[in-house]
């Protein structure tokens, strides 16, 4: 079974502070994709934070990488990691996970 992590980021500072860190956050995201940790990411609607769908086979390694996010290091977000065991999934995801 694949373990997936839903990472929920909630802004706790004004958007202008978030936006100042956005370029560094995007670079951090790109590195997470390159490492094979992240599957999808994007903003919440309305824009109150973001969501990352991550591979979570090694929860401690994922938590360690999440702690390196410029958003988290600067204290502009609250982060919640929700690991779950994917017992059902679309056929298209089986090769990815």
- End-to-end C-alpha gap: 9 Å
Tally of contiguous helical segments: 4
Q: Mean pLDDT, rounded to whole units? A: 93
Helical content band = 25-40%
Strand residues, percent = 25-35%
N to C succession of SSEs: EHEEHHEH
Keywords:
4 strands, alpha+beta, 4 helices, 97 residues
Describe this structure in words.
- The protein has 97 residues and is an alpha+beta fold.
- Helices cover 37% and strands 34% of the residues.
- It is built from 4 helices and 4 strands, in the order βαββααβα.
- It has helices spanning 15-34, 59-66, 70-73, 91-94, and strands at residues 2-11, 38-43, 49-55, 77-86.
- It is globular.
Describe how the helices and strands are arranged.
Layout (H helix, E strand, L loop, with lengths): L1 E10 L3 H20 L3 E6 L5 E7 L3 H8 L3 H4 L3 E10 L4 H4 L3
Antiparallel strand pairs: 1-3, 1-4, 2-3
Provide a brief overview of the structure:
By secondary structure, the chain is of the alpha+beta class.
